[in-house]
Fold this protein.
Amino acid sequence: MWRTDDVAEAPEFMRPNTTEQRRLSSRRLAAIESLAPQAPSGRVRGAGSTSARVAVQVILIALSIAVGTWALYRLERVVVLLTLTTFFAYLVAPLVRLAEQPMHIAGTERHLSRGLAIAVIYLLLAGGGWTAGRILLPKVAGQMSEAFLRAPDYAASLRAWEQRCVGYYEQSNLPLEVRQSIDRSVLAAGDAAIENARTSLIALVGAVAYLPWLVLIPILAFFPLKDAHRFRRAALAALPHRFRLRARQLADEMNDVLAAYIRAQLLACALIGIVCGVVFTILGVPYPVLLGVIAGVLEFIPLVGPFLAAVIATVVAAFHAPMLALRVVGFLAALRLVHDFVVYPRLVGRRLHHLHPFAVVIAGLAGVELGGVVGLFVAVPAAAMMSVVYRHSLEEAHQRRLAARCSTH
């Protein structure tokens, strides 16, 4: 900028030669000066609007989670039905694909339609279930009747064992304070056991209310078995184009994880039930078929189920012979080691190996607290799918950082 005296002393060719040029120069200077103080306030407004937007998003996410949890609680039976339907669909899907394989009949390649293949598999499963029921139900019912008839004998044996323990306890030279503390602990443990047994019985009676809903499982499973690819295509088409590849990869991996878990658990249930029934028969354990069925059913519940099955089998064996109980404990321990470290990893493949056992325990405990027995069923596959989502989110963030670095260079 020229000062007034500088303009007066400047050569003729360097002076602003018109009034319009001087006015234009002053206007530009005023515009520059007016813009300078407004920059900080604009940044403050931008930061404030960003913080408000983040706060609104967090509140909306929290409200969505709360509403979803409330809806799941209110629709408990529907959630249970959909969960069992999903398990059934994943179990039947490989059989349906097998039935769809082309066949050569009279030199012509033919194959069943999807709906007809599902109907054929349903008929085969119904026939197999009816045959298994005809074979197993009479034996299971007979052994249950025998166990109920001998319940008074078991109660008498338990009272005799309790009296022997009380006699040993009274003959001991423990201080009075220690004995009183032990008595209070035993009474508290007994009350807790009775309360847990009452709660379990109420839950079992409540589960009977779900039996009429079981008829709907194959009916509802028919639709995802038949039109799963259409559902998936429609869901992917609803996403923005840049998210479709990642969503497809995520859906494929979650589908593989859930399918591997469900099929491995069901195969493990069948395997454990058969092995336990056969070995209990060889060892001479009472009610081998009933105990085998119990072991197979409880195997589906992670961690807690096998432990309960072992406790039931050991107690039943101990009522008849202490050495028989030791044999049962040794067999179940060996079976657990072989199954957990040799058989089950081959059943489930590599899909769930990234899920740490500690995560399985925490997921099971959280499932029990949130949804009871149903939550325990769903907890482990839900944790596995959450780990898949977390891993994909990390990969997506890593790819974005790499793309940002490449664009800057």
Confidence is low (pLDDT under 50) at residues 1-17, 35-45. The first helix runs from residue 4 to 9. The beta strands are 103-105, 108-110.
